[in-house]
# Entry
Amino acid sequence: MIETVASWLQHSTSTVILTGAGMSTESGIPDFRSKAGWWKSVDPRTVATVESLAGNYALFREFYQLRIEALEQAKPHKGHEILASWEQRGLVALVATQNVDGLHQLAGNKDVAELHGNIVTIRCAKCRKPHSKSHFMENAVCTYCMHHLRPNVVLFGEALPQEAWNRTFNTVQSADVVLVIGTSLEVYPVNQLPKMAKGKLVYINLEVGTHTQGFDAMIQGTAGAVLVQLDAFLSR
Ligand code: APR
# Structure
C-alpha cells in the first residue's frame, strides 16, 4: 500500500495534507481522544469554549498557559520535516492542520492553513489587538483596553478562520491526492473535508477508526514512520 500511495504522490499535480493531533504526539504533545490524550485529564469542551473565556477566565487562562508551556519543549519530528521537504520539492500544495502548535511552520512548511488557529500568538479578547506570549503567560491584561488576553485559537462555539477554510476547501476539491494524517475525524466541519475530495483519499493513522468510508487507502501506523516509508519511495 505504501508503494501505491507513493506512486499516487509522485504523479500528483496537487497534493493536500490534512493533519490532526496525531501528527504532533511524536513531538510530545498529547492528542485529544486516544488513550493518553488530553481528554483523560480535562475535557477541552469545558475549557476551550467561548463560555469559559467569558465566565471562567482563570480556568481558561490556566488551560492555555499549560498548553503553551508544554509547547516550549516540543520540536517538529521527522514526519514534519518530510512534509516540509515535500513542499520544497513541489510535491505538496498545502498543509491544512487542526493543530494549534505551529510545528508545521517550525519544520519549514510555508503554506499552512491553520483551521483551528494557533496558541502561539495572543490577542485581546475584546479589541483584538495583538500581544506577546509573555504578556499572556504573566497574567497581564490588554495594554489598550485592559480586557482579558487569549490565544488566537478557534474555541468551541467560534467560526473557523474564513480564509483558511476557503483555501483548504477549494484546494481539497481540486487535489489529485489528499493525505489525512493523525486525526480521528470526530470534529465538524473539518471532518467533512475528506468527503469533498475528488482525487485519491488516503488515511494514515494509529487507529483506523470508523470515519474511513470513502478512502482509497488506509495505512495504520505512526505519522513519522509512514512518512519516512513514503519518502523513501519518493526519493528513489
Ligand atoms: N501517528 C498517527 N496517528 C496518531 C498518532 C501518531 N503518532 N498518535 C495518535 N494518533 C491518532 C489517534 O489514534 C487519533 O485517532 O491521531 C488521532 C487523533 O485524534 P484526536 O485526538 O481526536 O485529535 P484531532 O482529530 O486532531 O481532534 C480534532 O478536536 O479537541 C478538538 O480542536 C481540537 O483540533 C482538535 C480537534
Remarks:
- The two ends are 17 Å apart (CA to CA).
